[in-house]
Design a protein that fits this description.
Elements lengths: L2 H4 L1 H16 L1 E2 L9 H7 L10 E2 L2 E2 L5 H18 L3 E3 L5 H12 L5 E5 L15 H4 L2 E5 L10 H11 L3 E4 L10 H11 L2 E5 L4 H5 L12 E5 L10 E5 L4 H12 L5 H14 L2 H23 L3 E2 L8 E5 L7 H10 L2 E2 L1 E3 L13 E5 L1 H5 L4 H16 L4 H16 L7
Helix pairs in contact: 3-11, 4-11, 5-10, 7-8, 12-15, 15-16
The structure holds pyridoxal-5'-phosphate (PLP).
The site of pyridoxal-5'-phosphate (PLP) has 15 residues, from helix 5.
Length: about 400
């Protein structure tokens, strides 16, 4: 029986979510639209299979097709990123990061990551996360003036602190990271270089962002952000760390892999290997830049002064509105984006002074520079009149009209 017949309640909510995704402007920098092919693979019978282990070395019987699916996913991931070995089993970005810690650290070991409030991830040493509870995080900061990473300061801090591992790769940092500088720092103190490319993996795959592969000891990534695959994650390593990485994922930190999701990842890598994905990645960055320029022209301030990626971080302070107020007002108008701390934020984490906007999802819909300008003008209207219900309704209509021209799934 179909879902509609067996569970009309959930079916109805999924249908409503589809219309909502279709009729709103999604500017959440960590979101995207996976293709129908990716979703078909992810929703397949492969969900019925246990496959603990790796292709050719399973702890369960009956994996003849599963082995091929996972082997293909691994081969495509290796080709896409030009890396020696890939592990496609991590269930999520947080799981991948847990496995990376498991591979290289003992509880109590010291590591360095960017402070959460400045764009680091929870798993990079937040006190409410295992990374901050079971390990000893030392935070590095962006420069107070430029709001960019200060590589000399990071080197200095690493020499003082002697961490065993250093993480780079963030959730809200609009500039390109200098992986070579991090490599030099790690070499100077004998630390492992862990690069978490969760946010910009699609840009790396599409050639719009430098690759960390020549420098990293271990790479973790989600597959559902700019890479546009199913919700999940992956890890990559040079030859010297291939075995320790695989062991850290299974049996170290996970049980049976989600082979249906791994099939979705294989499809995603195939899509990302096509020439059109290069065009996509380039357009994502172009679109973010146009959005940034338009917003700046309206009087907000960009953290770090610019973007070189898919995301921009806006300081709303000059507009006299908090991140929380902006997020709520924008959502009422059909513009979905999240509030975000900015470096050295004076507001509480639940309120914030900033908004984070990303261009990956709108670009997947086929939107280009013109639509970005239109989108920016709608955002500005709401930011300037956050309490004007009539105006928000009018913007909501404009949003729907704009979205109607760019269907998320064409049949
Ligand atoms: C999104 C993200 C994660 C976590 O991914 P989940 O799949 O949500 O667990 C980890 N690190 C960074 C840098 C991220 O942006």
């Amino acid at each position: 029986m179909s879902l509609k017949q067996t569970d009309s309640e959930i079916y109805g909510l999924i249908s409503s979510e589809l219309s909502y995704q279709q009729s709103t402007l999604r500017l959440i920098a960590s979101e995207n639209y996976a293709s129908k092919a990716v979703m078909e693979a992810t929703g397949s019978v492969l969900t019925n299979k246990y496959a603990e282990g790796y292709p050719g070395k399973r702890y369960y019987a009956g994996n003849r097709h599963i082995d091929q699916v996972e082997a293909i996913a691994i081969e495509r991931a290796k080709k896409l990123f030009g890396v020696y070995h890939a592990n496609v089993q991590p269930h999520s970005g947080a799981s991948a990061n847990f496995a990376a810690f498991y591979a290289f650290l003992q509880p109590g070991d010291k590591f360095m990551g960017l402070e959460l409030a400045q764009g680091g991830h929870l798993t990079h040493g937040s006190p409410v996360n295992y990374s901050g509870k079971w390990f000893k995080p030392v935070a590095y900061m962006v420069d107070r003036e430029t709001e960019a990473l200060d590589y000399n300061a990071i080197m200095k801090k690493a020499k003082e602190e002697q961490p065993k591992l250093i993480i780079c790769g963030y959730t809200a940092y609009p500039l390109i990271i200098d992986f070579k500088a991090f490599r030099e720092t790690c070499d100077a103190v004998g630390a492992v270089l862990m690069v978490d490319i969760s946010h910009f993996a699609g840009l790396v795959a599409g050639g719009a962002y430098p690759s960390p592969v020549p420098y990293a000891d271990i790479i973790t990534s989600t597959t559902h952000k700019t890479l546009r695959g199913p919700r999940g994650a992956m890890m990559m390593a040079p030859e010297r760390n291939a075995q320790i990485m695989d062991k850290a994922v299974f049996p170290g930190t996970q049980g049976g892999p989600l082979e249906n999701v791994i099939a979705g990842k294989a499809v995603c890598y195939h899509e990302a290997l096509q020439p059109e994905f290069k065009t996509y990645a380039g357009q994502v960055v172009k679109n973010a830049k146009v959005l940034a320029d338009e917003l700046v022209a309206s009087g907000v301030r960009l953290v770090a002064g610019k973007t070189e990626t898919h995301l921009i971080l806006v300081d709303l302070t000059p507009k006299g509105i908090t991140g929380k107020e902006a997020q709520v007002a924008l959502e009422e108008a059909g513009i979905i984006a999240n509030r975000n701390m900015i470096p050295f934020d004076k507001q509480k984490p639940f309120v914030t002074s900033g908004m984070r906007f990303g261009s990956a999802a709108l670009t997947t819909r086929g939107m280009k520079e013109g639509e970005m300008k239109h989108t920016a003008s709608l955002i500005v209207k709401v930011l300037e009149n956050p309490n004007d219900s009539e105006l928000k309704l009018k913007v909501r209509k404009d949003v729907e009209e704009l979205c109607a021209g760019f269907p998320i799934y064409k049949n």
